[in-house]
Amino acid sequence: MRKVFIIAIKEFLATAATKGFIFGMLFPPIILGAIITIMPLLMNKKPPAVFGHVAVIDRSGAVAPRLVEAFAPEAVENRRKERTAKVREAIDQGAKSAGLDADTTKALSGELDKSLKAAEELAPATSLRVVVLPPETDEESAKDEIRKGGKRDTAASNGTGAGTGTSTGTSTSGNAADPGPRLALIIIPDQTVRGSDSAPPGARFGEYQLLTAPRLDIEVQSDLRSQANRAIVDARLALAGQNVAQIRELMQSPAAKETTVTADGTASINEVTKLIVPAAFMFLLWISVFSSGQYLLMSTIEEKSSRVMEVILSAVSPMQLMCGKIIGKGAVGVLILALYSGVGITALIFFAVAELVPWQNLVYLGVYFALAYAVIACFMAAVGAAVNDINEAQTLMGPIMLILVIPMMLWLPILRNPNSTFAEVCSFVPMINPFVMVLRLCGSEPIPFWQVPASIAVGMATVLFMAWASAKIFRIGVLMYGKPPNFATLVRWVRMA
């Protein structure tokens, strides 16, 4: 047993004590921190000002006045305030749903105010007017004015008709005698507003045209599109004799206060965290298991191809070597699991939502990690001992990998219905049952308790069988060179050894 642990320590240090492993563990957080630090610096440059006008050809005569009103300075400012209020409200609701405490919510609100203020400061200064053209205006000549507007950037950079504010939308300030270059053209046919009784169902109202100049600010385009759509719908309602303001008020979506009933009372729920937490557990298990398994496979192939394996086997038995390598690389997997799960749990505690992860689930995560890793490690050790290079290993690993990615592909159906027949069956399928059970235990509803020990028993039986079979393959293949074996040959080795 002492030799097994010596090999295990050697395998652990050979991986965990290398610069590449340490760098790989620290690299993702460093990159994330760098992005968070650099992005604000890259985005602090204010975009160029937008100066010009939007022409409207309204053949219905009912939409153009509404567009002029929509782009009045007061209306633009009100839209900016509404957008800011909606963002703040969404953040507040998300904080409440996630169960954040009062201090954390207050801190997030302060950061949100700073971000919104910075966004307003970085928004392009705009000076946009709405010019209503006669209904009989030729469309091509109106488009020619857009083509002539290529000098708008020069006009804006020279300060011509600079806007009076810095909103994220558009304003109507500017010199009335000089509307500037034409940045967009809106053509509204009469059928778009009044419809056609002879048109087939679903096609009563026609479409309108929104023509924009190249490189027009995307926020300006979005505002033009949304306000044109709203003005057309309001015009349709008014022509139908409806009260536009009343209908708009009736169509507002109601707010829902969602809570879940628990043994201790009621608590806010968050659908996002209900999906993220279980998925994070399964992906964390999958990554830690396969990372350590991959290290085991590569080290076994390297030692065999370099003939170091022969020297090691002069001092230990093949079984001791295999067990030592599995334990050593398993410790690497435990390290990966502990580091990343520790970061996640610390974040949950910081945000006061630790109740999303019951302590029992952390225990089950450790148990199922041991089962999943033992199975994968036995398979990796057997494959590594049977082949001579990584290309040969890929051929044997392909079919097994197809089986092991099943939980990754079907995690959402299992998560949404953890007690379905499919989920229950997968919980007792060897090799994939640890991943499925971790997902089900963090799912949307509790599972029958008897399935937990039953799935653990299936996992332990799988481990024993894989250890027995892998030991036989390892003992034969570790000193064999030449043509790599296929699955039939591996089965023959298990039967004859």
What can you see in these coordinates?
By secondary structure, the chain is α/β, with parallel strands linked by helices. The chain has 2 domains: 48-250, no CATH class; 270-496, no CATH class. It is 64% helix and 7% strand. It is built from 21 helices and 6 strands. The strands form 2 sheets. A 4-stranded mixed β-sheet has the order 2-1-3-4, with helices on both faces. A two-stranded antiparallel sheet has the order 5-6. Helix 14 runs antiparallel to helix 15. The relative contact order is 0.10.
Question: How does the SSE layout of this entry go?
Answer:
Layout: H1 2-16, H2 19-42, E1 50-58, H3 64-70, H4 73-97, H5 102-122, E2 126-133, H6 139-147, H7 152-157, E3 182-188, H8 190-194, E4 209-212, H9 218-239, H10 244-250, E5 259-262, E6 265-268, H11 271-305, H12 308-313, H13 318-350, H14 359-386, H15 390-404, H16 406-409, H17 411-416, H18 421-426, H19 433-441, H20 451-477, H21 487-496
Parallel strand pairs: 1-2, 1-3
Antiparallel strand pairs: 3-4, 5-6
> How many helices does DSSP assign?
21
- Major sheet: arrangement of strands: 2-1-3-4
Shape: elongated
Q: What would you report as the Rg, rounded to the nearest angstrom?
A: 33 Å
Q: Provide the β-strand percentage band.
A: 5-15%
Average pLDDT score: 75
Number of domains: 2
Helix percentage range: 55-70%
For the largest beta-sheet, the strand count, sense and barrel status come to:
4 strands, mixed
Q: Termini, distance in Å?
A: 23 Å
Number of E-state strands: 6
